[in-house]
Amino acid sequence: MLLSYTLYSAVHFATGIHNNSNTAIDNILIDKVKYENYSIHPVVNKLSDHDAQIITINNITVDKRISRTQSIRKFNKFCIFQFAINLSYENWDVFIEEDVDTVYNNFLNTYLRILNSIFPLQKIYSTHNNKPWITTGIKTTCQHKREFYLTSRASNNSKLNAHCKFYCLILSKVIKASEQLY
User: Fold this and answer.
1) Comparison of pLDDT for 34 and 72, the residue scoring more
2) What is residue 140's predicted lDDT score, i.e. its pLDDT?
3) Which residues contact 65 (CB under 8 A, 6 or more apart)?
4) In a 3-state reduction of DSSP, which class is residue 6?
5) Could you give the 3-state DSSP secondary structure of residue 50?
6) HSE-up of 163 (CA within 13 Å, CB side)?
C-alpha cells in the first residue's frame, strides 16, 4: 500500500541570523492540502542566533472536550533535599551488568522510581489567559511589526532599524493603553 504525504515547508524566512549570514534551516512541515489558511512568524528570543517559529492554523475545528488540565511536578526545598537523601541511600547495584543498555535501563528505572515518589505528577486546572483588550487591529499591527522587524534585521540600515524600534515602542504603548482602557 502506497501512502502519500503532502507535507510542505511553511517557513520561508531566515531563522538563523549571525553577523551577515542568514539561514533558513529551522522548519515547520504542514499538510497544505488539509490546512490552507495558516500564518507563521518568527519569535525573537535573544538567547541564541536562531529564532523560534510560531504557526497559527486558522479555521480549524477543535474538539471542545479537550481537557484543560495539565500535569506538573511541584518542587520545594524540602522535597529536593529528600530527593538527594533518597538518591544517596540507593544501593546503585545497577552498574554491575555487562550490557550498557541494561545498565542504563536499570539506572533510569531506579532514578525515576525515586523521582516519582518524591515529586509525583499532580493534575492542575489550566486557566486560559484570555486578553480581550487585544483587538484585531493590534493583532494585525503585531504581524506587520514582525515582518518589519525581519526586514530591518536583515538590513544594516541604521535609519530603518531606528524606525523599527520606534514602531515597536508605539505598539507597546497602544497595547498598554488598550489594556488600561479595558
Assistant:
1) 72
2) 87
3) none
4) coil
5) strand
6) 10
pLDDT digits (tens, 9 = 90+) for 93-118: 877 878 888 888 888 899 999 999 99
- What is the rounded average pLDDT of the residues 36-64? 72
| Type of residue numbered 87 | L
Cβ neighbours of residue 166 closer than 8 Å, sequence gap 6 or more: none
d(CA 161, CA 148): 9
Summarize the chain as % helix, strand, coil (round to 5): 45, 20, 40
Query: Environment class of residue 89 by beta-carbon count within 10 Å: exposed (0-12), middle (13-18) or buried (19+)?
Result: exposed
Convert the pLDDT of each residue in 81-91 to its tens digit.
999 999 999 98
Over residues 31-40, the mean pLDDT reads 77
Q: Which residue has the cell 492540502?
A: 33
Query: Across the chain, how many H-helices and E-strands are there?
Result: 4, 8
**Count of Cβ atoms closer than 10 Å to residue 66 Cβ:** 7
Task: Check if the beta carbon of residue 56 is closer than 8 Å to that of residue 38.
Answer: yes
Cell numbers standing for residue 71:
500535569
Does residue 135 carry a pLDDT above 80?
yes
